[in-house]
Fold this sequence. Notes:
- There is one protein chain.
- The chain is α/β, with parallel strands linked by helices and 140 residues long.
- It has helices spanning 11-21, 38-48, 86-90, 93-97; strands spanning 2-5, 27-31, 63-67, 73-78, 102-106, 118-127, 130-139.
- It has a 7-stranded mixed β-sheet, covered by helices on one side.
- Strand 3 (63-67) and strand 4 (73-78) form a beta hairpin.
- Helix 1 (11-21) packs across helix 2 (38-48).
- The protein starts with a strand and ends with a strand.
Amino acid sequence: MKVExxxxxxxxxxxxKLLCTFGEERFFAFFGKMGVxxxxxxxxxxxxxxxxxxxxxxxFAIVNEYSDRDDEPxxxxxxxxxxxxxxxxxxxxEEYFYSGCYCFTEWTEKVEELLPEHYVRxxxxxxxxxxxxNAQIIEQ
Length: 140
């Protein structure tokens, strides 16, 4: 799936399309430079899932847990501050990653070796003010 995003007003539709395209998937690994819109898109994904909580980047907490419309957990990770992969082990990443619940990860490159064998890789880049989102299923 490849989408050009010209305005933040398009994000709700992009989030719906992403979740619809990858309907059975629960693990979404986001890649992109700082400020490209990873957190903003994750907020929209959570809104589509019916999350009522305040969705914000868990930079200091590493993981935030929200509840979707069915009261199921939705996990949002931000690995930006991780100094080593060992810190992911310390928070018990396996319980989250393999829970079967939605997981959205930012700064995923810091824990790429820990990713499940099957996930959706979402890359966002900016070119001339346009965000380009490229999402695909990865099978390792």
